[in-house]
């Protein structure tokens, strides 16, 4: 197992301590900002309580929460408190509901009918209920109610400010007989074990809570180091099990956020044992939750590289080029999803309502769809490339007839093409939906077509010999397709007899193709020299002739005689050529063992 240098440990410790100090500063600001009395429109959103009795009945849901652990019951109990809707308002209200429920465990069993009988109405908007503890009559709890326009009767902010003091005092008292067998919470057990001299004094927190925070931080820090050092060989062993060695930089990018996530998670779980005041606990918990969310997203983001690295290595080793496109796109997709889910979860931590955020996203998606129409088209173009597979990484393609080059990378929005001029073109993926894609990389061979012009004084038999000689060169070449070639006289040009030469070279890379084409053309020149065939070029011949030079000795007497003469000579020519063929020649056959089959 590898060990960390002391300097690395010191740096990690200082960074963690800095995060703790920043969080405590955030707590101080939140605690100070939570003190002002609220206006009616700032009260928590939820039910409308028509009377103080209804508010008390809703508050009693906290005991159902203690029995079943239902978060919905705790949320209902928290709605009766007039607390600030700030960043930590929801958490503070929930904690107040729990604390007040524990206070009444040492005071009396709440009866909504008794509250209604003993309620003192101060004015049309304020009421008060006072009750003394059955264990210590000197301990009196006064619950104030305020009527708001928006949410009805709530437990007022003055009472909320006193709950923490009541809780601290009540923790030193015995429980009332009605709840004597109720199991104590872990925080109550921890508080009962603390010496009384550490429960008094201190700034913002009790002395034992400051000590507990420091010990908790140290324990979480060293546990984080141990777990991180244990995970490192495990990740490497899993990678080697897949036959892949993880690069150190990829593993290092994952280890740091993973260690911080463990630190925050352990600290978040342990801070609940310290029984912190509500004004401190709520913003502190929110700060740690936000920190844990950010670090969690960072951890998953880095873990994507760790998980996708073996896939990338295997894709590089496989012959299937589709994997070369899929793995980078998969990695980017997962990272984007991680960031989106992280942002939504982060926002839900601030607002406390995940479903409203998701509903807002669904409504806003329509407007986003209109605004990002081009981006959505590009995304569908990406799916087209992946599902249809018109090309692979490394293929040479022509897109729409104006873009040609080698495919280097396929992304969410665009595809990058390397041109023959070595420039990089970014093509929006939406073009693959509306434009034709000519995948030159899918060719089995490269086609060569050239027209050879020979002089008009070349005899027909020599043209026949020249064409057959070129066919033999094609058949003899090791990289030509022997089952598909065409060498025939194609026409009578202005200054030449044209021979069309079409063949295929089985070489996909451009360098090999040009080399073998060069060799073939040189062999054609050598063949022409051996046969005495001359290539024509545009010429102008000026001929000074005498009248007798243009006379013909076999001129037919009239038109009908000319028709008969033409038919007779044509039959003589055909008898020596096509007359030797079957009644109806079949299609062209390519047989290496029988080259003459091409002429039959």
Structural commentary:
The protein is α+β, with helices and mostly antiparallel strands and 600 residues long. Among the domains are: 150 residues, no CATH class; 96 residues, 2-Layer Sandwich (Alpha-Beta Plaits), CATH 3.30.70. Helix content is 53%, strand content 12%. The strands form three sheets. The chain has a five-stranded antiparallel sheet. A four-stranded antiparallel sheet has the order 1-2-3-4, sandwiched between helices. α5 crosses α11. The chain is rod-shaped and about 150 Å long. The two termini are 79 Å apart. The N terminus is likely disordered.
Strand content: 5-15%
Counting DSSP E segments of at least 2 residues, the number of strands comes to 12
Percent of residues in helices: 40-55%
Order of helices and strands: HHHHHHEEEEHHHHHHHHEEEEHEEHEEHH
Distance between the termini: 79 Å
Give the overall silhouette.
Answer: rod-shaped
Query: Numbering strands along the chain, what is their spatial order in the largest sheet?
Result: 8-7-6-5-9
Largest sheet: 5 strands, antiparallel
Point out poorly predicted stretches.
1-45
Instruction: Round the Cα radius of gyration to an integer and report it.
Output: 45 Å
Structural class: alpha+beta
Report the average pLDDT across residues: 76
The number of helical runs is 18
